[in-house]
């Protein structure tokens, strides 16, 4: 369930655009106004506001925000204002760049979005960067990591619910054999995780658990020093327990000395319209502190305000 | 979230009582009518129907149901028609009887209900059986199992959200020490689990996980042959992941050769008004088959119909 709160009576996009235009004018920017509008509109509404803003003021709203704002607050407002596909494209591009290389983000985007959402992100990537996500990933990775990531971002997965139990049984056996042999980058293992539907992978991993008495991630636990194995675990976690995967990203971002604002902003902006309520629940369960309180303790100012607004805790 | 579906326009209790009265009349009983009424009324509505039935027909609705129905269907209708406290009292009584001894049910009731709900169940137990749950548990158990169960069912736990992080840290250390010493029935370990609030136990177990790199249940996994350790694990599971605990009870009930109708009926009737939607989600995730389909495959007739109705799948 989404945490985003949209008022019962949403102003017309024209009114929102006008208020935003005013917020940029004069001495200083009215950050509170920006939050009170943008952090309470869904993707369609934000997109209308951008269209109207461009038509009425002949300016790109995103460029205006970029010019007026700065730091973590700017990044949060920008990421949030994007539509989901555009935002994923932007995050994916960032993570293939040399200086910000972050293979986790690629796994996260490839594995927690639906097949169609991910395809839209790849289309947005192409139209924005004039390259394909696949070529960038292939170019910037190597070895086992490329062997896993490239098919992961390439496949247009089947998204249906049907599962083939016979196949699940035989592929669970293959996974178990490969993992016992410590052949974590085995062709078959990668083929199964990168091409099967999420429902089918779920069935295979359930069979694994039933037949071998423990989940596949527990088998992988011992080798968690290795980056490749870490990514493999993230793939599985994203498929099976996305809310726990995101809880962990948040936990690590917040507990880090100095807070990892990139991770925090990414999870809040990408999940506020999707499953943030569930992630908040997992966060409380795992940390015994509500997420909004943890964020309020670690951040401040406008950045804190927009994160709390997106979490549905404007007055926390 | 509850799976129970109540129609937008609920008939008056008088009308429901009259329809039920008719359903018992003439040749055979109209089971479909019983399901269409009772399986679509919440606890308050069912209680009104019972009151009106008693007033208008001078008969106890539960006794009528008992007389007219039989087998698994009867048990499901009876358990469901009870109010939550009465039902818990009945289940607890069953589970302390010699022939049906089932310590799991006691753990389940003591650990997944709120403090007030559990207190109401104990009050219902006393008014119905003229004994206290505590004395029955004490009388029918012994050794380590009594040492754990008796305080578990005795404590009126604090139900607040506040947690003391310093305490969580020190008690996590105690738990770790005791478990490393394999002192699973240690006084302190039992004191912590049976007297601390659920929120505080959650914080302690989170600290355990953070400090020792793995959850307490993984430490206990190796000793799972032992009934006492099994119960200890159930206590922890009920506190931390009730939806997973119930998913497992359902999975084991359904996968058993011949289906364990008692477990199945218990979970469906006790959770339909509480968190059955979440349990269904966990069931699908862990078994790759929707719960309603699994139940439809394993049960039949009126019994199947009432279970599916309570799951919100009348027309499955």
From TrEMBL, chains A, B:
PROSITE patterns associated with the record: ANNEXIN_1, ANNEXIN_2
One of the record's GO cellular component terms: plasma membrane
Pfam family name, one: Annexin
Binding site for Ca(2+) 1: 24, 26, 28, 68, 254, 256, 258, 296, 299, 304
Assigned keywords, A-Z: Acetylation, Annexin, Calcium, Calcium/phospholipid-binding, Metal-binding, Repeat
Superkingdom of origin organism: Eukaryota
Molecular function as annotated in GO: calcium ion binding; calcium-dependent phospholipid binding; phosphatidylserine binding
InterPro entries: Annexin, Annexin_repeat, Annexin_repeat_CS, Annexin_sf, AnnexinD_plant
GO terms under biological process: response to cold; response to heat; response to salt stress; response to water deprivation
Annotated Gene3D superfamilies: Annexin
Domain remarks: A pair of annexin repeats may form one binding site for calcium and phospholipid.
Family (UniProt): Belongs to the annexin (TC 1.A.31.1) family.
Protein name: Annexin
Organism encoding this protein: Capsella rubella
Taxon lineage: Eukaryota, Viridiplantae, Streptophyta, Embryophyta, Tracheophyta
